[in-house]
Design goal:
The complex is a heterodimer of chains A (about 210) and B (about 220). With about 210 residues, chain A is an all-alpha fold. Chain A is built from twelve helices and no strands. The longest helix of chain A is centred in the middle third of the chain and has 26 residues. Chain B is mainly α and about 220 residues long. Classes of the chains: A mainly alpha (about 210), B mainly alpha (about 220).
Chain lengths: ~210, ~220
């Protein structure tokens, strides 16, 4: 029997269509057969190992679907099966058929997934309304909006100040520069800046108290 | 299957292939069971230093049921060890778990018959009040190290039914300890003895099952990545 026929018929195991679309991989699997590839993987051949793992995917997915898992749970089962195959690599005897070994792992992990699901179902309650109504521990959305409005109002009030006062408040109040630094930037004396800064504060206080007019 | 999940699978396959190291194929379950039984035999040889074979011979000749119970314990240890190693390999039937059942029945049956006997066995000593507790202590102290060794050997495989495999391992260890106990057990078995022995065996099996099954689960570090 050729290697291709051997792999197509052994234990009823057929790698899925996804595998056959993988050019080089297809040739690899067809030419060598999974028991041979597993033996190569056990010897440390990574390419052979990848071919084996890819061939396990459709088998694992079929086992999960047979157990009635939803599509998203099928992916989880497939991952569990791949990890178990990795752990159990040394337990495979290349002189024995590969199919029963893989099917045992796939079926077991599909059943285990149901058990985990059942345990989670016993501990967790599905209550979407309670979830939506649960108060967020972060900052209050209203407070954030108010802060945004106040910030806009202050910006508008600063824009309405005379040029000298606006310059003083922007440099000393907002940019937090010292009087010396502000004097160096503007070319004004420290005394003039100080006067402009205090007048600006007074004007802003008045404008902010007026509130919505700003 | 979505592209996202397929990409995740490809990443997992690439990672597992990257972690691949050459592995040695495990010897057959029969060979590994024989290895463990060999270790138990060495332990028995060590204990035989303390055994009174003259008294043991008198006891076994005068009470055949004790010999049958000893045979049952030895067979239980052997068959439960084989079953534990068989069920630790993926693809082997869970029906292997029934293998030690006849030996367990023989062991328990013969031990129960011994308890119904009236009058002391020739060559045995009067039992001290502390005797059952000493026996239980011996059974636990001997069976747990042997169970630990068995678990280490089983962990090299990948038991898909960890609780079943660990229970069989616990049964094998407890039966081996009970068989070894006969070597240094200069008393006739009473009903109280049987109950205490049974409780110690069950405790050993349960301890092995709980601890072994937890350890035999999937490696959490691998799962988390």
């Amino acid at each position: 029997m050729s290697a291709t026929l051997a792999i197509a018929t052994f234990d009823g195991f057929r790698p899925g269509p996804r595998l056959w679309h993988m050019g080089a991989m297809k040739d690899e699997v067809q030419n060598r057969g999974l028991p041979v590839l597993m033996a190569a993987a056990q010897a440390g051949d990574r390419a052979a190992y990848q071919a084996v793992l890819r061939a396990c995917v459709p088998v694992a997915a079929a086992a999960a679907r047979r157990q009635g898992h939803a599509p998203d749970a099928v992916d989880d089962v497939v991952q569990e099966v791949l990890i178990t195959v990795h752990r159990a690599l040394a337990t495979y005897d290349p002189s024995r058929p590969f199919g029963p070994w893989l099917h045992a792992i796939a079926n077991r992990r599909a059943v285990d997934a149901w058990r985990r699901h059942g345990r989670a179902g016993g501990r967790e309650v599905h209550d979407p309304e309670a979830y939506l109504a649960h108060a967020d521990s972060g900052p209050d959305a209203d407070a954030q909006t108010d802060a945004g409005f106040q910030s806009d109002a202050l910006r508008a009030a600063v824009a309405r100040l005379p040029a000298g006062q606006r310059e003083a408040i922007e440099l000393i109040g907002l940019a937090e520069k010292s009087l010396d630094e502000a004097a160096a930037v503007t070319g004004r004396s420290k005394g003039a800046l100080k006067v402009n800064f205090h007048r600006a504060l007074k004007a802003l206080r008045t404008l902010m108290v007026q509130g919505g007019d700003v | 299957m979505s592209d996202l999940s397929e990409a995740a699978q490809q990443r997992l396959i690439a990672r597992l292939a990257g972690e691949l190291r050459p592995v040695t194929v495990l010897p057959s379950p029969w060979k590994r069971a024989a290895l463990w039984l060999g270790a138990a035999l060495w332990f028995g040889l060590f204990l035989s230093i303390f055994a009174n074979f003259q008294m043991l011979r008198v006891r076994l000749l005068s009470t055949p049921d004790m010999g049958i119970a000893e045979l049952g314990a030895v067979l239980t240890a052997m068959l439960a060890a084989v079953a534990a190693f068989q069920t630790s390999v993926p693809g082997r039937s869970a029906h292997w778990a029934w293998l030690p059942a006849p030996a367990v029945l023989l062991w328990l049956g013969a031990s129960t018959v011994g308890c119904l006997r009236l009058g002391p066995i020739p060559g045995t000593e009067p039992e001290s009040p502390m005797h059952p507790a000493v026996c239980a202590w011996f059974l636990l102290m001997v069976s747990l190290p042997m169970a630990f060794l068995l678990m280490l050997m089983l962990l090299r495989a990948c038991p898909l039914r960890p609780a079943l495999t660990a229970s069989l391992g616990g049964l094998a260890s407890a039966a081996a300890a009970a068989a070894l106990l006969t070597l240094i057990h200069p008393f006739d078995a009473t009903a109280e003895d049987l109950v205490v022995h049974l409780a110690a065996v069950i405790a050993a099996v349960l301890a092995t099952r709980v601890l072994g099954a937890r350890r035999m689960g999937l490696d959490p570090s691998l799962r988390a990545r």
